Amino acid sequence: MWRLLAITVAFLCAAAEPPTLRIPRVRRPPRIPEFLSGPPRDSACVEGFRQYEPGDGVPISEKTSACVSYDDRNLYVVFLCTDDPRQVRGRMSKREDIEGDDHVVLNLDTFHDHHRAYTFQANPLGIQADFIFTEGQAPDFSFDTLWHSDGRLTRDGYVVLMAIPFKSLRFPNAPAQNWGIGLGRSITRKNEYATWPRVTKRLESYLAQLATLEGLEQVSPGRNLQLIPYGMFARSRYLDTAAPAFRDNTERRAGLDAKAVLRDVVTVDVTVNPDFSQVESDEPQVTVNQRFEVFFPERRPFFIENAGFFETPIQAAGFSEPAPLLFFSRRIADPRLGLRMTAKAGSWVVGALGIDDRAPAAGRAGIGVVRLRRDLPGQSSIGTLFMTRNLGNQSNRVYSIDTRLRLNPNWLFSGQLLRSETHEAGRRPVSGPASYARLEHTGRHFRYFTRYLDLSPDFGSELGYIRRVDIRQAELYAGYQWWPEHGRVLSFRPDMAALVNWDHKGRVQDWSAGAGFLIEFPRQTRFSAGRSEDYELFRGIGFRKHSTGASLTTEWLKWLAISARYNRARSVNYVPPEGMAAFSAKTQDAQFGFTLRPVPRLRFSQNYLYSVARARETSIFHNHILRSKLNYQFTRRLSIRTILDYNAVLTNPALIALERTKRFTGDVLLTYLVNPGTALYAGYTDRYENLELTRTAPSVLRRTASPYSSTGRQVFVKLSYLFRF
Length: 725
Description:
The protein has two helices and 40 strands. By secondary structure, the chain is an all-beta fold.
């Protein structure tokens, strides 16, 4: 026992002292051909990559090295990756679409405070992906910046070159820089991810284990001003269901996005008459017979960029339902002007957002959000948030204070206190408090958290996504993961979760208790199964529920990925016909999908979602959702994508108050993407529904058997160009 304790202490001490990498300044940028016969002398090269998973500190299975250098403008990293070229997974795809590919990774903690890092990824052909990693938050994949990469397959593997402009980074204004740096390589077919320096899951913090980068001297982002003007033209014909009548619409819009960096650390973004249309469509979800609003993520560029600056601990999602969002930018309809300021100065992090929103039918809404956070030693922090929305004679404000405390290398506590105020002329002001607390343990084997959420009946955030108020919710989760050293099983984990929720009068609203099991094999193959027993109080009626489900995902073959899920449950019919009380129903939900990559440039995905509810063997509804998606990548910049969607809700009007609907949508998008700011999009969308406009006077809408009537058709072109000074 004492020997084990001594080994553990020695391990923790070693992990607390990451290595240092001192890099040289080079006279000219490196090129891939110079590295095909071995690294040149004027680079600082590292080897000894060790597994983060599935092994813990085990040497990487394929030899890997990386060489780092810099000049006046860029930081350079060249990865030399040994492998069988026939086994390497790397496809010609659009930017950010490298999931399922082998790839290399660069992490840069430019303030060396162990709180936040830039992450750059590239597959063997140099296709890019990037995001912001912040301790305690989900990765911010909305981050897009200008950098350069190239990749080449070789006889014994592949080589990737990354060039990161200093203009694309934020770092202290100092003559000599000390950054945190981490290098990584993912070998997809082996489910293997390895790092330099060694990083372990035995410690909760990833960024605290990065190496120290030295040697950067006299570098600066310099004068950093970006201008992205855009122009958009759209012609559409759509069915106005309020009139009802078909209408034609032509839209021409031009605007400007501008970005300026002040004193290297303050970023100011201004958008004038922004185009907040969505080029990419939402992924399909089942929305039939849902008690609460279904969550669709934000996709508009101005809002998703730097969204992590405005996150608070309450957004740490539980396992039972989507977490509350105090600021959900999809509540903003049609902005005329937007201003955002983000800054990292020493231990202070600041984010501020102002929007002039053209709210429909009610004038303009003024929106403001301010987030202030102070980073403390040991990766702890304290912060505050203020939000306001003013529309006519009505206003809504939310105040918040929060903290995140690292108790030791594995235990974390986060907490938050909130209050909202809603004022409307002629009515009594409404004010309500809220609170949140979470204690969690993260390690290589054991994962645990318990959380408590309290939302008073009068708490409200008009800019937020909050499914319900008047709750006092307690939840816990525990799981233990084993990592066998030999055999085909890479890991397996049993886990359990429980939740109970009361209102503020002490009545139980719902509870849930369940257990599950996950097993992982090579080639991205995972199987999971679970069972839960549940209770829900709905409209004064208590319902006992249960759910049993299983799922499987695999990319066993290089050219084929498969996913499947099935769930059988007893649930509730939330929308019975008028005069009928809600009642219990048997439900089944299934999903099956696959992705074919017969050649590196072509990808075809098929996804099918099926949901059915029955009462005493009588059908309540059937919901069929089918999506076919085809993408062809001509070059790294040019691609074409086609999506075909079919959604049918087949209802029994005697048992559910929903219409029988069928909808078919076709979507074609041509993309020429030079970089995140310079792009050309040309698209066409056509939607057909089982609606018919009668020829009577006045015209009325009626449902038909098939979706043969075009109810929405649009063609559009959008062009943007990045000017960077």
